[in-house]
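In this section we walk through a basic example: taking a raw amino acid sequence and producing a predicted 3D structure, encoded as discrete structure tokens. The instruction is simple. Fold the sequence below.
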Amino acid sequence: MSKFRMGKLVVTMKYFFTFIPAVLLTLISADFSGVYVEEEQQYRTYLEHAREGGMELGFPFHFVTQNPSKLSPPFPYKFGLEMERITNLNVLPFFVNVGIYFMIILFMHFFFNRIIGKARRIG
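The resulting token sequence is shown next.
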């Protein structure tokens, strides 16, 4: 392999290993954007809201819609992503979220590399 092709492969692998955490962060955001219920009244409010349009999950853009849970849980309880209750998965907001997380991770990578590079030159 020539130097040029090897360099392209390294760049491609770097972006691939940045894309994987972005996808994972997007999936984790759906679980963390759930509803935390501390008492019976909040639970009733959650059920009414969820029955109207479903519970939307994902951050910063909602990409998963799911039916309300039929649990009668002990309080406090957090209603998050339940795979068997998903009614709609919107692909466009999912990939927009992945793109946002990808850019954040890439920015952090370049920022910390620049700081480390300056620290090495000084020290």
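Looking at the output, two observations stand out. Residues 63 and 90 are 5 Å apart (CA to CA). The mean pLDDT is 86. In the next section we compare this with other chains.
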